[in-house]
Design a protein that fits this description.
With 206 residues, the chain is of the alpha/beta class. It has a single domain, classed as Rossmann fold. Helices cover 40% and strands 22% of the residues. The chain has eight helices and seven strands. A seven-stranded mixed beta sheet has the order 2-1-5-4-3-6-7, sandwiched between helices. Strand 6, helix 7 and strand 7 form a beta-alpha-beta unit. The protein is globular. 32% of the residues are buried.
Length: 206
């Protein structure tokens, strides 16, 4: 029997929920996870690897919106990273461990963090279905995402398409690197870390 562990954070610590894939569909698993302790909320969705400056700005905006509406601010993230799953495991490692990501998301403003197990089965779920999970199960009232965000099968769930579903989507502008036209992204940070490690190895080997 194959079991996937989903980690989500509540007040007081981190809880672990076992999702039995042999007895339920991936969609049912995710619905159960999102429904746990759900209350009306403002949601920020993303992989959030490293919780860099761009992520922090997005979370602060979502947290401020939640406070003004007397709602909870929830960060929804994925583990393993979607790019790792799609690459068959052949990808650069995470910037920081999942536990550190959860702590950093809370420091950035999230009242609760939900970690959704990512798989190829989940990647095949349409954006319409996943959006309905967020609104129906998690009780999402407003969605905060980055300007280049998309989710669902084929990454078809762009902000304009989500708005067509009646979802209140707020996009946050990209944060640009100093003295560069490049955006601050987890992908670029992972590449820089890899280059530093490679340089250190070359130096050590001589």
């Amino acid at each position: 029997m194959r079991t996937t562990h989903a980690i989500y954070e509540q007040a007081g610590g981190v809880a672990v929920a076992s999702l039995e894939r042999s007895s339920t569909t991936v969609e049912a698993d995710v619905r159960r996870l999102l429904s746990a302790d759900a209350v009306p909320c403002v949601v920020a969705v993303g992989t959030f690897d490293g919780v860099h400056r761009g992520h922090q700005a997005l979370l602060r905006a979502a947290a401020e919106a939640a406070r003004t509406q007397a709602l909870e601010c929830v960060a929804v993230t994925f583990s393993p990273r979607p790019d790792v799953v799609r690459a068959g495991g052949h990808a650069l490692p995470d910037i920081c461990p999942l536990e550190a990501r959860i702590r950093r998301l809370r420091r950035a403003g999230a009242d609760r963090v939900v970690v959704v197990p990512f798989s190829l089965e989940l990647a095949a779920v349409s954006y319409e279905v996943f959006a309905e999970m967020l609104t129906g199960c998690l009780q999402m009232r407003t969605l905060y995402v980055g300007a280049d965000f998309a989710f669902g099968a084929g990454r078809a769930g762009t902000p304009p398409r989500l708005r067509e579903l009646g979802i209140d989507v707020r996009t946050h502008p990209l944060v640009m690197a100093a003295d560069s036209d490049d955006k601050v992204s987890s992908t670029s940070i992972r590449r820089l870390i890899s280059l530093v490690h490679e340089g250190a190895m070359i130096t050590a080997v001589g």
